[in-house]
């Protein structure tokens, strides 16, 4: 009965009115300050009975001043006792007025283990609002017809917590929602793969079938998507390895024996028919490519754009993704996290490196902690007071604080953003880095962004050898005296053929950390020479497989950029797969 109801809903689902969506966004952002006050009032009215807010003495107040005076800034660690009570089955109003029935898991790649985050229908609605808004601006610039989308999306298994709540990765909770399917139809972005592929239990089999479905419907594909750029690059790197097998499947109309999951085989048998003509055409196109440049437009000639999160830790994959994309535009998806969404990309023609995100003032209440440059304040540990959404200054950097509809109040997200301008009265943000991802031994402070810039500089040396960095991460090794930075690289070529270039890469990495504390510490040997460890091929695949084994969704995976001792399993995978290491001679 429920399935029939969903089908009827889908049939009734209207195509999103792009102009109306843009008008609503323009109206909402004209007086963002007023909308923020109304949004906070609504959140506090709906959740005023929650134990957490009751204990803080709000006493029904819903104004920003009382809220800030009573409610402290918190991290996930502060809320863990409350969240654990919810997952253990306590149905009393703990963080929200209505009981939480679903839990989201973060990817776990940052801290080594996933965070548990409350998820509810209201949060799902804010997700869809972000999707609708960015689609409207995207479709105005790059209109899609009634075709299909090749979406590399994967759902990990949902499970029950001790208290019987549904739990899964944030993307799983979204993809399993009937509302998501409805919205995709409204956005003319129906995915070409059957549900059995998306919700399949084996990531590698699902990926193979996503590629196969894309080829079967290649003339109808209007966009290519995955939540993260890493997943897109991984998909087409995989294509390079299996393309002839995919052609054979299409030619014969028989699915490869590598697909063993019965539900996936059954679903694929309904759409895979013998088509030797298409197989020959695809084979010819692939054979004619030079080093796979322009693969995506060759395979999918009607693709208007490639879409996914391409900022922050995803930027290093852009060069390879552009190689596959040829002349098809790359477009960065919206800005959010497992805890909820923040801003939409309303300037879709900007390249990913320049993309900004306009904050939607009606999906949560946002505050911004200025990053202090006052040395005295830093030494004393004094942190500036947060400012409101409309009080931020262009050119300044801030840490975001979120109050959302699912029980997070004045929650420090840990993201650093830079204010690039305003859209009407709401700020447009650029993601800078994660605040807590820091390489630090002495007085040095190097962020994820600093690491990325150092790697970019060193890869210029590698490019002269016609090599590329497949992926990278880092570690602070304090087992030596003095401690030193370790950078792990997996490269595309054979290590022993490029010893001299890799030594120069190591020196370049060391020189390219421009933090004054690092340079000063290196000069006096308070920090030891940087070490570059070049990994055996397939090491980062082993790390991906490790996270998949823990229940992570393939599409939510992000390579951890700094691996601490706490993330022991990943560190062991890295250390056990070193092909060759080099020490910098840059500061001798």
UniProtKB/TrEMBL annotation:
Record's keyword terms, sorted: Ligase
InterPro entries linked to this entry: GH3, GH3_C, GH3_M
Keyword Mitochondrion applies: no
Example of a GO cellular component annotation carried by this entry: cytoplasm
Sequence ranges assigned to domain GH3 C-terminal in this UniProt record: 449-564
Single Gene Ontology MF annotation: acid-amino acid ligase activity
Record flagged with keyword Ligase: yes
Domain GH3 middle: 358-434
Family designation: Belongs to the IAA-amido conjugating enzyme family.
Name of the protein described by the UniProt record: Jasmonic acid-amido synthetase JAR1-like
